[in-house]
Design brief:
By secondary structure, the chain is an alpha+beta fold. It is built from 5 helices and 9 strands. Strands 1-2-7-9-8-4-5-3-6 form a 9-stranded antiparallel beta sheet.
Length: about 210
């Protein structure tokens, strides 16, 4: 009951109401397998620490949506803000763009550190947790996610940390997720080759 109440209150404190759309393919007590639709992001790469990179990047990306672009227009905030390690002390931070925009209609960033791109449709495993943004709390939940992955899937790429709330939200009310992109297990594909012989390549990679 307490967890449900915290989740409800946290949903009212989101950075933005729009978020990437997805279909839940399956779930258990801890993990959801999701198929995400494609969406557009504004992104930047920051050198820093796990706990500090998001704050360092926020003002860069916020500048873009608050009017630091070639049209001087403001763009609605969405959630979550995502963070993914892309090298030693290097992190990719992304803001999703509202679905009303396309790459053709979005204003161009005037800050060269900001890039616009399409994130393609993908299948992910996701774990949701509430509370601290500490690296220790993240590591604990990442371990729980990795231990709960169905054996027919393999993780591909680095985990993605998704934060849905403003830093002003009380710690206990923050909604966080960790996402890992999935691909079919090669062991499963080889052992079940006859079963998947009629599956198209696009189906395997989705």
């Amino acid at each position: 009951m307490l967890k449900a109440s915290i989740a409800l209150i946290a949903s009212l404190l989101l950075l933005g109401q729009e978020h990437p759309t997805f279909t839940v393919l399956e779930k258990d007590d801890k993990v959801e397998i999701r198929q995400y639709d494609s969406y557009i992001v504004a992104e930047t790469v920051i050198e820093g620490t796990f706990e500090g990179a998001g704050n360092d990047a926020f003002h860069i990306l916020a500048g873009y949506i608050f009017g630091k672009n070639d049209k001087g227009v403001k763009i609605d905030m969405t959630s979550p803000v995502t963070q993914q390690q892309v090298g030693y002390s290097r992190y990719l931070i992304q803001f999703m763009m509202p679905s009303e925009w396309t790459l053709e209609t979005l204003p161009k960033p005037t800050d060269p550190r900001v890039n616009l791109k399409v994130v393609p449709s993908r299948k992910v495993a996701a774990i949701t947790y509430h509370g601290s943004w500490s690296e220790r709390h993240y590591d604990d939940n990442l371990l729980a996610l990795e231990h709960s992955l169905p054996t027919r899937f393999q993780q591909t790429g680095e985990p993605i940390w998704a934060r849905y709330n403003s830093p002003m939200a009380l710690t206990m009310l923050r909604t966080n997720e960790i996402l890992v992109e999935l691909k079919w297990s090669l062991l499963l594909m080889h052992s079940k080759v006859s079963k998947f012989s009629d599956v198209k390549l696009t189906d395997v990679s989705d």
